[in-house]
């Protein structure tokens, strides 16, 4: 009995054989794979021209040289040469024309000089922090194509509308936790200054990370600024937040409780620990970390106070600024101690935040400084977009989300409804 190949497998075999045949033929004729006259260039040219011919046939309603076209009122009228920039470099193609110039191709549109993949390459390189000059040089080196700085700027400017839409998209009704953090960038506004860009990251009821937005600040923002940011988030559909984690930003706690009356303001434990290390010699970091762990893992506030007293006795004389910092942050640290271990794990989980911050830092570091605030926001948005194909930056917050969800549902009874966004 003869075995019949699956049609999909058969197609893959045919395609592989065709590729091998083309490569062998190119090698025999001394044709390179890449380059202006290379095999990939010629294949791309043939595919684009075939697709354009098919579009012209559909437009006219008859095949080339078909007698049905006689007296139809419109017909083919030769071709015109056009060079388009593709992922493999510039490709010269012949675009068919018709007599009455009504043909409007879609594969390669009129006045289009780049295939869409090139725009995505530019946006990807911008997200990595490359300047317009560096991207232009990249295209010259890799593709042998000249792409001006103005063209690259126009490509990235197209994303501003997308960024505005993203910044105003509807959000979930409830977030168990929202983190508010700052990324500092250098902006040249007369002189180079450090500007904070504030990022809000939510943990959804389904246990996903959701980057809610990015806001430019001036530094030293107060309650009025924060109330405008939180009101914007609220107006996008966020009716309730259980916990907002932040790091000593002036006026923010008051604005949080104005926007969401029942929200608990929690100082960021990770930032508190990191700020501790800033005051201490590096050789003591490991010992300090060990001595602080019993404080933030204590079962109650009284137990945490006892452990912190021990920490103070050991380190207070040498590093009094650390003790003062913890004392000042204590009222916004202690809510953490009332939570179930699963909720504590969500608040202390840094992977989902660090992946965002690492992308931002890499992009910012590569640029050095930005000419405008808008340029900085655009770069950070593109970095956010690169985290996920949808541009929403979604990712799992924790592998063991269900225990955390149960803990949130019990602690914040009546406020957490799975899939009830």
Structural features, described:
Residues 7-13 have low confidence and may be disordered. The two termini are 58 Å apart. The chain is an alpha/beta fold and 421 residues long. It has a domain at 173-411. The protein has helices at 7-29, 39-60, 116-127, 132-143, 149-157, 159-167, 223-235, 252-259, 269-278, 285-296, 301-315, 320-333, 341-348, 351-367, 373-386, 401-411, and strands spanning 76-86, 89-98, 174-189, 191-203, 208-216, 240-246, 264-267, 395-396. Strand 6, helix 8 (252-259) and strand 7 (264-267) form a beta-alpha-beta unit. The strands form 2 sheets. It has a 6-stranded mixed beta sheet, with helices on both faces. The chain has a two-stranded antiparallel ribbon with strand order 1-2. It is built from 16 helices and 8 strands. This is Mutator family transposase. Required for the transposition of the insertion element. It comes from Williamsia limnetica. One of its GO terms (biological process) is DNA transposition. Belongs to the transposase mutator family.
Topology:
Elements: H1 7-29, H2 39-60, E1 76-86, E2 89-98, H3 116-127, H4 132-143, H5 149-157, H6 159-167, E3 174-189, E4 191-203, E5 208-216, H7 223-235, E6 240-246, H8 252-259, E7 264-267, H9 269-278, H10 285-296, H11 301-315, H12 320-333, H13 341-348, H14 351-367, H15 373-386, E8 395-396, H16 401-411
Parallel strand pairs: 3-6, 6-7
Antiparallel strand pairs: 1-2, 3-4, 4-5, 5-8
Helix pairs in contact: 3-15, 4-5, 7-8, 9-12, 10-11, 13-16, 14-15
């Amino acid at each position: 009995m003869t075995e019949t190949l699956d049609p999909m497998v058969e197609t893959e075999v045919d395609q592989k054989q065709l590729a091998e045949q083309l490569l062998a033929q190119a090698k025999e004729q001394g044709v390179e794979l890449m380059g202006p006259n290379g095999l990939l260039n010629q294949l791309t040219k043939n595919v684009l021209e075939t697709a354009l011919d098919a579009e012209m046939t559909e437009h006219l309603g008859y095949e080339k040289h078909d007698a049905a076209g006689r007296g139809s009122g419109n017909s083919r009228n030769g071709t015109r040469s056009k060079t388009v920039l593709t992922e493999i470099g510039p490709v010269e193609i012949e675009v068919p024309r018709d007599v009455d110039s009504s043909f409007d191709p879609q594969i390669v549109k009129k006045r289009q000089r780049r295939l869409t993949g090139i725009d995505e390459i530019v946006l990807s390189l911008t997200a990595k922090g490359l300047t317009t000059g560096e991207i232009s040089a990249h295209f010259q080196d890799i593709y042998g194509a000249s792409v001006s700085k103005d063209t690259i700027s126009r490509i990235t400017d197209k994303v501003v509308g997308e960024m505005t839409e993203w910044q105003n998209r509807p959000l979930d009704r409830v977030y168990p936790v929202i983190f508010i953090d700052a990324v500092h960038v250098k902006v040249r506004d007369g002189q180079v200054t450090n500007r904070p860009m504030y990022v809000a990251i939510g943990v959804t009821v389904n246990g996903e990370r959701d980057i809610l937005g990015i806001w430019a600040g001036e530094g030293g923002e107060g309650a009025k600024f924060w109330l405008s940011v939180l009101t914007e988030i609220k107006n996008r559909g966020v009716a309730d937040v259980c916990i907002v984690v932040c790091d000593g930003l002036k006026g923010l706690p008051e604005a949080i409780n104005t926007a969401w009356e029942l929200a608990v303001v929690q100082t960021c434990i990770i930032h508190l620990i990191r700020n501790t290390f800033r005051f201490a010699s590096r050789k003591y970091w490991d010992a300090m970390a060990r001595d602080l762990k019993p404080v933030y893992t204590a079962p109650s506030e009284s137990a945490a106070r006892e452990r912190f007293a021990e920490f103070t006795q050991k380190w207070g004389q040498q590093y009094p600024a650390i003790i003062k910092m913890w004392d000042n942050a204590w009222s916004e640290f202690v809510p953490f101690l009332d939570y179930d271990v699963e909720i504590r794990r969500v608040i202390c989980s840094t992977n989902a935040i660090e992946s965002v911050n690492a992308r931002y830092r890499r992009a910012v570091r590569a640029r050095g400084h930005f000419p405008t605030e808008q340029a900085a926001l655009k770069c950070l948005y593109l970095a956010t977009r690169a985290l996920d194909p949808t541009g929403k930056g979604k990712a799992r917050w924790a592998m063991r989300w269900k225990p955390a969800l149960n803990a949130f549902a019990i602690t914040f009874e009546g406020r957490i409804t799975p899939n009830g966004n």
